[in-house]
């Protein structure tokens, strides 16, 4: 799974299985946001909206369980 960690001036920082990679920012679709799950399509990293929402829902669930102590 490729995650967009952050965007810098001319660079996008990606995380894949704990490994950090820097790619030119113009290889990441302009609609992609930090924390999005990305897919590589034709040399461009684009947000996978379904996978991103599933990942965010899982994180919210974990946070709720931590806060509630369960």
Describe the structure.
The chain has a single domain, classed as Roll (SH3 type barrels), CATH 2.30.30. The chain has 70 residues and is of the alpha+beta class. Strands 3-2-1-4-5 form a five-stranded antiparallel beta sheet. It has one helix and five strands. The mean pLDDT is 95.
Relevant terms:
single chain; 70 residues; alpha+beta; SH3 type barrels; 5 strands; elongated
Number of strands: 5
CATH class: Mainly Beta
3D shape: elongated
Going across the biggest sheet, name each strand in turn. 3-2-1-4-5
Order of helices and strands: EEEEEH
Structural class label: alpha+beta
What is the count of distinct domains? 1
Low-confidence stretches: none
Distance between the termini: 28 Å
Helix content: 25-40%
Q: Number of DSSP helices?
A: 1
Which architecture per CATH?
Answer: Roll
Radius of gyration: 14 Å
The CATH topology label is SH3 type barrels
In brief:
The protein is an alpha+beta fold.
Produce the secondary structure layout.
Elements: E1 2-7, E2 11-16, E3 19-24, E4 37-41, E5 44-47, H1 49-68
Antiparallel strand pairs: 1-2, 1-4, 2-3, 4-5
């Amino acid at each position: 799974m490729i995650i967009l960690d952050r965007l810098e001036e001319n660079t996008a920082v990606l995380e894949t299985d704990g490994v950090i990679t820097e790619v030119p920012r113009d290889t990441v679709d302009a609609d992609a946001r930090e924390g999005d799950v990305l897919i590589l399509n034709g040399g461009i990293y684009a947000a996978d909206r379904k996978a991103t929402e599933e990942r965010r829902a899982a994180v919210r669930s974990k946070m709720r369980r931590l806060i509630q102590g369960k």
